[in-house]
Amino acid sequence: MRRASCFVVLLTSLVVVAPPVEAQAPFLSWDFADGGLDDFFNPIAVNFSACSATFPAIPSGTAEVVDGEVLLTNSSLFGINLLLLRPDVAAASFPESRDFRARLRVKFETASQLGVSVKTRIGFEEDLLQVVSDFERTYTVSVFPELASESFPAGAISVVEFTSCHGPVEHPEWPGAEERGFVLMESPVPILREEWYWVEVDASGDEDGGPVTIAVKVWPQDDEPPAEPIVTVVDPDGLPLDEETRAPEMEAQFGVSVSLDYPDPRDANREPNGTLRVDDITLTSPGGVGPSFRRGDSDVDGAIAINDAVFVLNYLFLGGGAPACPDAADGNGNNSLDLTDAVFILNYLFLGGGAPPAPGVECGTDPDEDTLDECSYDRC
Fold it and tell me: pTM of the prediction?
């Protein structure tokens, strides 16, 4: 144990970055090389029938495939746009758990907000080509480019839960949300107009009762994806679903919006005729591999602590017992058990390093295929 303790002292001064792991194949994908908008619903209006006597229906914008990319152009009157996955497509294609990872490319032209909505429920009126916001239930991750807000000159990221009539649900327990009730933070990566960026949103958990975890990554298209999310939030209660919003015909699950929240969801600022482009949308199941576990809980006691790093060191160098759940001991998620796992755990605990990759410190399944031995974990 003294030798392991020496390792702990030495390793707390090291910083190790793990390479990203290849994801599973998507269950839905669109590159828009030959069209591809048939799976989506682009309403001409958003109906707020029970929400606003002044504007019961607000015009939405248009979506069209141009040069193999989706050009989203806001309405000229109210300056918003919506593109939602059709419920029949979601019903036929999504995994039973409804956990998924959404990834897409975005290029900001004149518009200043992209919203990526997950776990989405909303009313559809196909004959009228509109959606009904009275039934809206969703989590929306918004990305804002440079200078969209004076407070965030490099760009910003927000995470908001919305309910009926696009009303934000307060979550003061989320990171930096004590005053606002939602996440609004500067992007660690400058987001420039006329440049392409990847946006990735992981959505896992039971939206009908909770908990639900949302994790966000954003990076330039020519870079490698970051090892850790920019921000992760947990909603302990899930979405406020009822008999109507549980209906399959309201289950879009995924969608994008433009200029709907700018940058505070309580603001009324919109961008008439604003444009941006999206492309290469993929939806991937993040959790088809093995049982639930907590990443970094090497000794399977239900918590991540210094003893987890010691456990890894004992196993690697002092003949200690093998971990019951190798995935949990694989602290940096690089599909191997080695010294870097102990370093990663110590950096996270004591030096402000990033949280363990998905499923993270909350229970969840491994988002990626790996070659580690079978996991036995009974703490979830």
Answer: 0.72
